[in-house]
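Fill in residues.
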């Protein structure tokens, strides 16, 4: 067991130093950073899933429904997930730009985690998740869709995520995809998971739950993935480095979704 742990788990004094120094310490700060997990998803939900606000946004911007939703997605991915952490680290935590990059984990590359641990974890995860996706995921999808406010309106392009790709040109999808597996990881696991370090060994669990719930505007599909989503937080807990998470997220979006689609 110790040999397996040494292979999977990476100790990183710099990571722990950032957690110890910059984790939320007051009750207000703790609530703030927990809520920050959900806030961008709630804003996207209001704009897209609440018809009066959606119609107002259409009239105000003059965009088509498809483009409005697409721009909302890109705004959340790039503006919120990337810009907000950098601004917060600079002006709230008083870190320089280089220190902010170190905090987010962008200046350290985990070679072993990227090339060995993550591919192995992905293979094991894919095998173990197939029963969940075949038997539990459909049931949870129907159950979540029956909850008030969680069945997307008919105009939502996220009502069936498998059809999103038909709405946008390839260059737009490429940008959105890169932002998805890069910026989401930067925000949730590079930034917020350290900020809720006050939760100790439960930080990765809470981070994973909130990461899943954040996708409220894409429910019920995303909320039904609450089981598999724990793999992201656990991998960060083990490797304490952002790059294995970026690779894992990429593999999930491209390879895992194709495997699940073919076998379930």
């Amino acid at each position: 067991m110790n040999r397996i742990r040494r292979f999977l788990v990476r100790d990183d004094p710099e990571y722990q130093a950032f957690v110890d120094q910059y984790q939320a310490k007051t009750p207000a700060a703790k609530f703030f950073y927990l809520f920050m997990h959900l806030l961008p998803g709630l804003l996207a939900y209001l704009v897209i899933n609440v018809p009066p606000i959606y119609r107002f946004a259409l009239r105000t911007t003059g965009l088509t429904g498809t483009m409005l939703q697409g721009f909302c997605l890109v705004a959340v991915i790039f503006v919120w997930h990337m810009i907000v952490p950098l601004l917060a680290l600079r002006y709230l935590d008083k870190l320089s730009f280089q220190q902010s990059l170190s905090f987010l984990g962008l200046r350290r590359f985990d070679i072993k985690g990227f090339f060995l641990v993550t591919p192995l974890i992905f293979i094991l995860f894919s095998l173990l998740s197939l029963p969940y996706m075949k038997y539990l995921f459909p049931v949870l999808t129907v159950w979540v869709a029956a909850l008030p406010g969680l069945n997307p309106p008919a105009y939502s392009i996220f009502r069936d995520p498998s059809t999103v790709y038909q709405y946008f040109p390839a260059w737009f999808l490429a940008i959105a995809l890169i932002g998805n597996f890069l910026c989401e990881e930067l925000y949730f696991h590079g930034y917020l998971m350290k900020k809720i370090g006050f939760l100790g060994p439960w930080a990765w669990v809470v981070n994973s739950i909130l990461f899943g719930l954040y996708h409220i505007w894409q429910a019920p599909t995303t909320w039904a993935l609450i089981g598999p989503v724990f793999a992201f937080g656990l991998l960060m807990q083990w490797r304490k480095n952002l790059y294995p998470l970026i690779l894992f997220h990429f593999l999930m979006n491209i390879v895992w979704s194709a495997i699940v689609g073919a076998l379930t």
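The chain has one domain: 19-263.
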